[in-house]
Amino acid sequence: QVQVTESGGGLVQAGGSLRLSCTASGLTFDNYAMAWFRQAPGKEREGVSIISGRGRTTYYADSMKDRFTISRDNAKNTLNLQMNSLRPEDTAIYYCAARRSAFSSVSWTDQRTYDYWGQGTQVTVSS
């Protein structure tokens, strides 16, 4: 049984930093690209970033690429998201997702193409 679990969310002031982690079990971790999505109150869920199975390829949403860094540790089946210079508009539930299929700079945001999802972790940025 595959389990995907996020951690590291919390409350932070604007301008601060937060590091999210995601662990996955029950799958061959480096066979899966891993991604972060987020859903703000009243908005649709959107893609944040993705990293390929071996970490060679990453994509980011435009509004986050200069502030967020995605990484993975395949030895520990762990995905990370370092978030700096946080803004109140970054407040959202952040989800970790895994996909077996190939992706492009456009297709990675298609949520229907992901195989497994975590339950999410809340990030709140106060002004």
Describe this entry's structure for a reader.
- It is globular, with a radius of gyration of 13 Å.
- Strands 2, 4, 5, 6, 9, 10 and 11 form a 7-stranded mixed sheet that branches. Strands 1-3-8-7 form a 4-stranded antiparallel sheet, with no helix packed on it.
- The chain is 0% helix and 48% strand.
- The model has no long low-confidence stretch (mean pLDDT 97).
- The chain is built from no helices and 11 strands.
- The chain is mainly β and 127 residues long.
Mean pLDDT: 97
Query: What distance separates the N and C termini?
Result: 40 Å
Low-confidence runs of at least 5 consecutive residues: none
* Oligomeric state, counting identical vs distinct chains: single chain
Number of strands: 11
Assign a percent range to the helix content: under 10%
Structural Rg: 13 Å
Global geometry: globular
Strand fraction band? over 45%
The tally of helices reads 0
Q: What's the story with the biggest beta sheet?
A: 7 strands, mixed
Backbone structural class: mainly beta
Order of helices and strands: EEEEEEEEEEE
